[in-house]
Amino acid sequence: MGAGRLVGRVIGAAVAAVLLMTGATALAIWWTARQDSRPGSDAIVVLGSAQYNGVPSSIFEARLEHALELYEEGVAPVIVTVGGKATGDQFSEAEAGREYLADAGVPDDALLAVQEGADTLESMRAVGTQFDDRGWDTAVLVTDPWHAMRAERMAEDAGMDARSSPTRQGPAVQTRTTQFRYILRETAAYLLYRVTGESVAGAPGIG
What we know:
This is DUF218 domain-containing protein. InterPro entries: Cell_Envelope_Assoc, DUF218, Rossmann-like_a/b/a_fold. By secondary structure, the chain is of the alpha/beta class. It contains six helices and seven strands, in the order αβββαβαβαβαβα. Helices cover about 50% and strands about 10% of the residues.
């Protein structure tokens, strides 16, 4: 076999392996998005998204409403809202989420705002620290369906025993085109994290 043919086969095998891994990751993201785990846990953790002067965006509101449903079902005694503050903002995502849930009737002692994190990885590490400080272990994560697998992985890497209960409402699940786009973006973000250990900034639920 000539050297050229050998190199060609090696390159072909490498391309096939990358395509296989990418396809398997996309399928796993799709599968995880369809699950809904609601085990009794120490806390419900709501991943932040955009807020406007303290008012949650439609994506964030869908997550908060789902977390409220889980809390009322008795899944956990505490809801943790997560997310930092963008330059120029008066409110952090965590603050906006906390106030939304307080207005919905959740008691103050059942709410914890973790106002750190410009992306999912930073937020999960900050939440992991709070869990350690309080002796908590288990969490149910609330985010968009396509974001659930990466959020679970990052939470587990931050020391939490995490499951996810994704939202079924909001812009991220409105159309098949939107769903397909989010799955593609999440596949790239998840693979990047697994390879580099870093997150990536992007659209709501992607960073």
